[in-house]
Design a protein that fits this description.
By secondary structure, the chain is α/β, with parallel strands linked by helices. The chain contains eleven helices and six strands. The radius of gyration is 18 Å and the shape is globular.
């Protein structure tokens, strides 16, 4: 059983996924972290034309070939943006997959933006939200005040549910190593929704074509709508949903035991042909 892990972002790094290292190793699984092209531990070319979904998909296929993974052993895991990439890979190359794991990622950016507008923003402190929106409108995403507002009013509620002073060192490294030259053009500069190249990305009408066993992981306090993630699991012909009741977007950190129990149970059930 070999798991290739696709990190989020785009332009983030594998480092925040280090939460999975001990549980996967303890279960005897072979797993591979890697930074996608443009991310901190890989080459970072100044080539905006490279930051397109089809090229990222072909990159994953090149990595698969180099690692000699195939349908007898290849589990593909994608978290956040990595979930988009994993679904796109499966739609083109599922013949090489044994199973798919989509963590904390909806199948539609328009639906994600709608959830942010309908649910996440109304639940925020409205004075803080108003100031955040003003700073965004003025293009002041690099203003220290912007992050000062986002951390307590958004990040600590929906990204990682613990005080920033307690964030694991791997999370701090990930933030320090983020490549905005990829993140901003694709995701957009706002942390309250997407506005870049991914703005219209939507695979809700296509995921039923992914026939390999598929696990969808969601969390109660995520930026991603848990109801949508449950729906996704039902669309995959061999889908399963796993919910983390205390987790956020990084549920592998703030609801670790439940997160890993569900992930490892899925792998074991696939091996036992129960999915």
């Amino acid at each position: 059983m070999k798991i290739l892990l696709l990190h989020g972002g785009p332009g983030s790094t594998f480092e925040y996924l280090e939460a999975l290292e001990a549980p996967l190793a303890g279960a005897g699984l072979e797993f591979y972290f890697y930074d996608q092209l443009g991310s901190y531990h890989s080459d970072q070319p100044d080539a905006p034309e490279l930051w397109e979904i089809p090229r990222f998909v072909e990159e994953v296929e090149q990595v698969r070939q180099a690692l000699q993974l195939d349908a007898t052993n290849f589990y593909l895991y994608g978290q956040s943006w990595g979930g988009i990439l994993a679904m796109e890979y499966a739609l083109q190359y599922q013949r090489h997959l044994k199973a798919l794991i989509v963590s904390n990622m909806m199948a539609s950016i328009p639906a994600y933006n709608e959830y942010a507008q309908r649910t996440l923003m109304p639940s925020m402190d409205q004075d803080a939200l108003k100031e955040i929106r003003r700073l965004e409108a003025e293009g002041k995403h690099e203003d220290p005040r912007y992050l000062e507002l986002l951390i307590p009013h958004h990040y600590e509620k929906h990204l990682l549910r613990m005080p920033q002073s307690q964030w694991p060192e791997a999370i701090l490294r990930t933030f320090a190593h983020m490549n905005a030259a990829i993140y901003v053009p694709m995701q957009g500069p706002s942390e309250l929704g997407a506005s870049g190249k991914l703005l219209d990305w939507d695979r809700t009408k296509d995921i039923h074509k992914i026939a390999v066993p598929t696990l969808v992981i969601g969390a109660e306090h995520d930026t991603m709508d848990p109801a949508h993630l449950r729906w996704m699991a039902g669309e995959f012909p061999r889908g399963r949903y796993h919910h983390c009741p205390n987790g956020s977007h990084l549920a592998m950190w703030d609801d670790e035991k439940i997160y890993m129990d569900g992930l490892l149970r899925f792998v074991n059930d696939v091996e036992a042909k129960l999915v």
